[in-house]
Amino acid sequence: MSVDEVAPHRRGRPPTLKDVASMAGVSIATASKALNNRQHVGAATRQRVQSAADALNFSPNALAQGMVAQRSGTVGLLTSDLVGRFSMPVLRGAEDAFGSEKMSVLLADARDDHIRQQHHLRALLSRRVDGLIVVGAQPDPRPSLGQDLGVPVVYAYAPSDDPQDMSVVADDVAGGRLAVDHLIRCGRRTIAHVTGDPTYGASHDRARGAVERLAEEGLTLAGGEVMYDSWSEAWGRGATRLLLDREPALDAVFAGSDQIARGVLDALLEAGKRVPEEVAVIGFDNWEVLATGSRPPLTTIDPALENLGRVAALRLASAIEGRAGHGVESYPCRLVTRSSTAPLH
Amino acid sequence: MSVDEVAPHRRGRPPTLKDVASMAGVSIATASKALNNRQHVGAATRQRVQSAADALNFSPNALAQGMVAQRSGTVGLLTSDLVGRFSMPVLRGAEDAFGSEKMSVLLADARDDHIRQQHHLRALLSRRVDGLIVVGAQPDPRPSLGQDLGVPVVYAYAPSDDPQDMSVVADDVAGGRLAVDHLIRCGRRTIAHVTGDPTYGASHDRARGAVERLAEEGLTLAGGEVMYDSWSEAWGRGATRLLLDREPALDAVFAGSDQIARGVLDALLEAGKRVPEEVAVIGFDNWEVLATGSRPPLTTIDPALENLGRVAALRLASAIEGRAGHGVESYPCRLVTRSSTAPLH
């Protein structure tokens, strides 16, 4: 009997631990232990439970499930991200990890304003949230909220500046490396890097990954250096005009953001360069409204924010159960290919 | 002195706490404390804030203040807006109206998925929210959640399809009228309208406002008709190429969204038309990442979503106190001028 045949009556509600236990023929407690890799579960049982979970497409958040029994079932998400560009995907990922019926997310918008943040913090704590996820407006380290809040905190996207805290972030170095790796696989050799504000650590991290990957091929950056300025289309256009002067053989640009990449594309188009035939362009962010509307649609590096939200929720659930983590965990970005890159013929 | 000279930024919206804070030269939090007679605000500051509130005719929201005393102090915001583009400004406006220390907003992301919406609804109600604000992913009417939830509901941005419900929406007809009025004031006479999906009521409403305002000048649409297709840059480009063929004297385009406007600008640039000298372009949405990065930066109609959030919060506060409203209330859009429109010389 296939999963398709079994599953239709369950369509629309996620499988529960009970479903898994029932399919594996074990108690709920045993299923929970098996999925959480606790001791006192034999290897065969563990395997049977895992197979049932896989067949049912069960995404274990036993942590959150256990947790919710004694808790308010509410997590606060404190964001400084005005347009929701970064916080909404993190929120979605966290909701997916917890399960909406088990945990609600109270979102509060601190607007990068310290006083407002303190207000929101008090308001969230007075509502007895079980924990907090803090999402920054940009990926650089942000001040810790301290260790005395009485509930666990996980920082997502922007790490805390206190190594005692737990932070989950996108791996910008690996993201920069991934971008250049893709361009090299497309046969490009004269690769420039146009990026944003040099006061952002993320600019330097992405650039470092790019330069390291180039060095492995015996290459250096076209234009001679990383071109830092601002996270804007205007800078993408300006930088590209400079580059075309300096590097007539330019065959690829790695832009540090999709906004910059849009400017790069426009300037190349104006200079009569064909993208991707003559010059390939890759961005960073996978901001869909920018990346899908461009000519041609933009290949870009996606920082996988939903995954960050999911991991942040799991780490928070562990911390609520008394197993707090520390330090900064980096998670991979992923390559999203559209039409602005292609192999050289 | 005309209203235009005094208060261009306030046209069509009541003063907010932010306006008061800005006029008094203090933070929003301080203005809030001063108006609520909290401690830790100096007498001089309190006086300055009160004077600003008086000058602006700002009425602090006694409803929300009174309401919260006997309630959970939590409002649910149920959104289907994947990127947060529409829900985040509504959330901010609602927070401003309530005051973050008095009311928290539980945000739940329904992702346009009926089953997920039902889950979230149960989750929110089980957390005893005092009321719900429902934000649609697009401005067309959406199915009512019904009258049996046990808490009041206000629909924002997208109205409910049940006239028993209370909805607050942007006035798309007036928005279309405002766009064309601005173009006419810039001396334009050959004005086309390129817009999105014809199955959206908002497309037709914006077009109707535009056509009505043209008719007052004895004008009709350049190109002979509203050009409907999709909310995309690609359609903006395609439509503009068609228009330049049909209407060599084209001197203005009203685009039904900022995405479309970006395409219009690109196609005009490619055709060698100078914007705004030869052709003026106005968009709709004031989606900043699109409107500020374009060449030239885009004049556009802002649907004033923060104000919708503020009004939704006030209506919800009334309903929670037992004075529920019904029907659809429309609120003005506002004109945001940048460089893509200018008077003809």
TrEMBL record, chains A, B:
InterPro entries reported for this sequence: HTH_LacI (IPR000843), LacI/GalR-like_sensor (IPR046335), Lambda_DNA-bd_dom_sf (IPR010982), Peripla_BP_I (IPR028082)
Keywords, alphabetical: DNA-binding, Transcription, Transcription regulation
Xref: SUPFAM superfamilies: lambda repressor-like DNA-binding domains, Periplasmic binding protein-like I
Recorded superkingdom: Bacteria
Domain HTH lacI-type: residue ranges: 15-69
Pfam families assigned: LacI, Peripla_BP_3
Membrane spanning residue stretches: none
GO MF annotation list: DNA-binding transcription factor activity; transcription cis-regulatory region binding
PANTHER family documented for this protein: HTH-TYPE TRANSCRIPTIONAL REGULATOR GALS, LACI-RELATED TRANSCRIPTIONAL REPRESSOR
Protein name, UniProt field: Transcriptional regulator, LacI family
UniProt lineage: Bacteria, Bacillati, Actinomycetota, Actinomycetes, Geodermatophilales
